[in-house]
Fold this sequence. Notes:
The protein has helices at about 60-75, 90-95, 100-115, 115-135, 135-150, 155-175, 180-185, 190-200, 205-230, 235-245, 245-255, 270-275; strands spanning about 10-15, 25-30, 35-40. It is mainly alpha-helical and about 290 residues long.
Amino acid sequence: MPMPPSRMRITARMIMPRTITATTPTTTIITTSIATTTIITAIPMLMTTSEPPADGGGMEAGEAAALYRLMTFLSPAFPVGAFSYSSGIEWAVEAGDIADAASLSGWLASMLADGAGFCDAVFLAHAHRAAALGDTARLREISELAAAFVPSRERQLETSSQGRAFIDIARSAWPCDGLGEMIVACNGAIVYPVAVGLVSAAHGIRLDSTLHAFFHALTSNWISAGSRLIPLGQTDSQRVLAQLEPVVVATGHRALRAALDDLGSATFRADLAGMRHETQYTRLFRS
């Protein structure tokens, strides 16, 4: 294990090797080259798993549980079927709008900042706040608006089927008090961002953390679809994800401050791609 610089003393002199006596808890190591003998004296650190670090940086039990659940809920391994949807990217590749890493990055940046990404984030934030307050009437209004806001049949299928799967799995594997009542209050189909906001609030997961994890999962899935369709290698896919980081952060901050009246999309080509995909002759994805 590397030793902190503040606990290490290094001296180098033009001397010949000599015998060094070491006593506990100090460890002395001698390395010799032709002209230099380096003596490193270090005090070993005591490691423990039963107590938090001495600097107070340990995570409390509730925070650790919330982070564990958030990572689980928005992991690619959480079986909501996201891998089978491309949000119209498949048609955009067929039409030549997306042909490489650069065009994929530009397309997704627009979807995040000015299209479905921003709108979904606003719905998630408002659903989370309503659920955290126990405001079932408000939660129902948000859920109904979010379900009516999607622009195409396949997009409706995509978000509603993922929302239903997310709710079902969360209730079965991660039950918690009040979750069932909030689901009933929505009185109908719960789209994916509302489902994520509702469940994360019920489990006491912070809104800002939930929103950024949601964006990461959404963006990663879009890139995964693009990488299979263009195709892209793993390194290029990671470059696109890195390029979109500032867009994700900025859009997340906007969504946290946005009212429902701020909802709106300007990604007409992406919306048309979702509609055109319905009649595309050959398809790998469901949207």
